[in-house]
Every structure is written in structure tokens, then in C-alpha cells.
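To: structure subgroup
Subject: Chain for Friday's discussion

All,

I'm putting the inputs and outputs inline so they're searchable in the archive.
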Amino acid sequence: MDVSKRQVCSAAEFGFETSNRYRIPTRDGISLGATISRPLADESIPALVWYDPYRGGSDGSTSPIARYFAERGYAFVYLNARGTGNSEGVSKDEYMAEETRDGYDAIAWLADQPWCNGRVGMLGTSYSGFTTLQVAAMAPPALKAIAPAYFTDRRYTDDCHYKGGCLRGFYDMLTYGLNMVARNGLPPFGEAVGEGWSELWRQRLEESEPYLLKWISHQVEDDYWAVGSISGHYDRIGAAALLIGGWHDGYPTPPLRVYRALQSPRRLLMGPWSHSYGDQSHCGPRIDVFYELLRWWDCWLKEMDNGVPEEPPVQIYRREYEEPVTDRSTIAGGWRAAEALPRPAPETFYLHNENLADGPAEEAGAASTAYLPAACRHGGLWDGGTPFTLPGDQREDSARAVNFISPPLADPVSILGTPTFSLYISSDVEVVPVAVRLLEISPDGTSVLVTKGILNATRREGMDRAVPMVAGEVSRVAFHMEATAWRFTKGNRIGISINGSDFPNVWPTPRSGRITVHWGPEFPSKIELPIWNGGSAPGFEYRPSPHAPRSTGSGDAPWQVVHDVLEDRYRLVLLGGEGEMGVSNRTPGEAWTRSKKVATVAWPGCEVRSEATGSLTSNGDCFVMNLGLNVYLNGDLYFQKQWSRTVNRVLL
């Protein structure tokens, strides 16, 4: 590749104007609100679409990313999902089928505008990364390129609601899910939609539904989760795709899976980042992601000869062992490149007698541990943009687990992909989670988390069904850990630690019991690591980020774990009391979350405060969810509503 071409890009040469008064029609008659930052250019230009319900640009302001691309000759479009921001309609769930169709219609409308050259790109992080893939799978003719970041292609297995058939823990109620109840209580901006804004707002308040009620009601992978999942439909995407992910994000596996499946021109960019663009991520090294996006759009939307197709399509940051300081902001490792994702070349390690060995055990054996929901508290927080922490030293977590360890490594070992486990286990209760952690252990005993995976053992025959464990009966459970790129250090050891806990990321299952891992000729328990040759140096350097990293909250008590010694209960407390989640090691079925979220908006003569409160509690048989919404207009209560739902646990 010609490295000098990396300097070829659109210059920041345009003035621009921003307006939140655009109305985009859809096929069923509602109009979507859009805020467009448009260059003051004589020639026609491409459009970039950021599409989600988070009210981006709805107040008419210009964000840094909108300014960056408008100055370089792109119309930057914040598109509000129906029922949110300045859009008409009602939002009753995330990723509604109507929402995806709306995105298709909006792209067609944008491409037909006299100022547009007919070429459109979609981008965004998290929700807008999801919608980018969902709309791309409908193949709008004008959508020529996409750049989703921090997304999933399979909502049940890899989103923030369930993981491996386990209910997620703190995240939905303490952060995202309840936050959307508050956000969706806000009005559109009067200046954007005109005199009818209050009627639109009233409809929104009366007819919107909390997404949380649906999530807790669909506990297996049924048809509900297929909506918004592109898994199995990758061939529908024809747009050139830049897939961005982060090893410390909550979605590290889907970018690799989607990259393998796509047939269109594609690139994989995986950094050490958390749930924000790699220019400001908690975890560095941080690079100028806007510039990497610009080069992508210049190539596919402006047809510039800037070397993008000549660069290695796989660009990943390979991590390595370092002291597990939970608030570090630079991650040890280095950038690597490859012409393709390697096909799995797994190296098998068999588990027996506390060892990882290269062959199965000749004699049968077993080891067991108690199921304690809070046994593991140092695995970091599942990151969807919450107060952040990285995994800490794993020794305390491993003390309440079944552990296996390799001999010291004679040479460094690199892996890239999803490690897998195939275990033979038994339990004395009908439902139990199996949590597996892959570790690197130094000679002094320091234990670093490489990656982890969890499977509700009742989903061992498929995520679409719940099959109880039979007391004392040995069953095979097989699943994958989260994807990673890692280089094990010569002289260190590889470790595997197994129990049923990932607190506070996973909700407890209902009964106390034990997990027994079996090995021997009949029970060849094993893990497989995706061995990799390590690729090569990229041959170029990324532009460093011009921004400082996001704060980890260190020193501000963003999250704490409080132990009630008498009752053996543990509470996660976020932001000094904004929300909490509690579990009991004695009675796992009894768990709870409580939280409050507030969203506000104001313009002259109008101040709105939307307050959402929520709790999710469980016993051994059911979940109980209670939600409330109070909306205040200029200090007076304007609207109030409550929701309550009790659902039986489906072996969950």
C-alpha cells in the first residue's frame, strides 16, 4: 500500500448551516424530525445519517461530529426515531419494524434532495450502530457505505438484556432501560415542529410503552428477538462496511461475526476501547476516529483515490498482560493487521485434576463449587456507557470457583477470535449458570482476566428453549466466551476458572446449589483457544486523538459494592445512590434493582422535567417490575403514569 495516500482527504473548507426544522415523510404518513448540518456548497454532496431515539440535534445545535463532516463537504443528518425527538408517532419498543422501514424511507428522501449527490452513508455508536445494520439489511439503493460501531447482529444472545440465556443484571433498570422511560417523556421542540408540538407530546405520553416490559416478558430467543437482528440476513447488505468495535465494550463479539459473514467491501477496526468512539474512550491508545471515518466516506461516497481499498482490511489492537489496575486509561499491547480474519485453528486444552493438559484424562474425576451469585465481583462492568471500571485481579474471584492451570508457557501465544468451552457438569438444582473465565497468571500469582463467557445451563440445547437440569445427571454445556485478541507472555500460565457468578452483570438464578465439573474418558471437558499467528505491523500509524479520554469516575465513587456480612448480601451502588442492585449468596432468588432517571428540556417559556422510577425484584418463582413516570411542566405536575408487571421465571 502507498502510505502517502493516507493523507488524501476532504479538506475543512466549507461553511455550513444547521436546522432542526426538516420533516422527512414515511410510507405510513408520519413525518420524522431531522436536524441537518449542511455545507454551503455549490456542488451536490453526500449525506451521512445518524439514526436513534436519543434526540440528537433536536434542539438545533451542532455537535462536534456534525461540524467536522459539514466542514468537509458532507450533510450530517441526525434522524430522530419515530416517537422521539422531533418525530411524529409513538415509540413502543426499541428497533421496531416500522423504525427500520422509516430509515429506508429517510435515505430515499435524502438521496432525492437537490443538494444531495444521491450517495448516502449511515454511522453511529450503540443504538445508531444497530439501526445502521438494520436499515442496511433492507438494501436502500442510495446507501453506499456504512460505519456501525458497538452493535450486535443477534439481539437475544449479544445485547444488553440477556447473555448466554441469563438475564442481564444492573444495566437495563439502572441505566439504559429506565433512562428511555424518562427520555421518551420529553416533548418535541416547538420551534422544530410548530404549534402542534403539545398535541404530539400528549400522544407520546399517553401511548408510549416502556421497553422494559417487553424485555422481561421474552425470556427465551423467540420471534420477538428476531426483529432488529440481522443474523442470517447478512447477504442483504451491499453497502461497503467499516465495522468498529472495542475489546472493553459490551459488544466485542458481533463485529468479528458480521465481518466474516459480509460479502460487500468491508473493514474491521477493533481497538482497546470501551463504549465510545476511540478518540475519547476510557481505554486507549486513542486515535482520531473521525479521520478514519472521513477516509471511509471519501472513498465510497466521493470516490477519492485515498488508498482505503489497499489497506489491510483487518486492523486490531492485540492486548497483553499488565497489572490489572481497574481505572487505567492506556491498555498494554499494540496494533496488528491482517488480510483476513483467520479461520479458527483451535488449540485444545483438556480440564482435569486442576490442570490444563493437551490430552483428555485417562481416569474419571470431578470438582465442585457452590453457586454464589456474588462470588465474582472483579470482572468489570458490562459497558454500555455507564460509570466505568476494568476487571481487577481475579484471585479473589477464583477462590470460590473450580480452577485449572497450564504449565508455564515456553513461548508467547497469540489468540484472535472467540474461545469456546465444552464442559460436562452436574448440579443439584434444575437451573444454574456456568460462568467461565480465561486468565493469564504470572509467576507471582497475579491473575488477569483475558475474556469470559456465561451460559444458563438450561439453554444448553438452544437459546429458544429451557430444559431443566436433572439433579445428579451429567450434561454437556458448550458455548463461547467473548471475542478477544491477546498475546500470552512466555513464562506465564493460562488459567480457567469456573463457577456461576458475574456480579453485577448477571441476575442470579433462583436456587442455591452446587456446580460440579466432570472429566475423564466419558466426560472430555475442554476449552479451545483460537490460535493466531499475530498478523503483522500495520505499516502506518493512526493519527492520535485530539481529545482527552473520558473520565473513569475515579475518586468520585461512581460505583461501589457494599457487603452486608450478617446476611451475606451484596449491593452495587451507582453514583453514590442513583441506583442499586442487590443479591443474596444465601437465597439467590431474592434479588432487586432500584433506580431513578431524570431527563430535562427547556426553551423560552417552557421547562420540562421527566422523572422515571423503577424497580425489578425477584423471588424463586417470578419477577416483579414496577415503573413510574412523572412529568413536570414549568414546575407543575403535568402527566403521571405507572406500570406493573409480574412474570414467571422461565428457568431463569
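Points worth raising on Friday:
The mean pLDDT is 96.
The two ends are 52 Å apart (CA to CA).

D.
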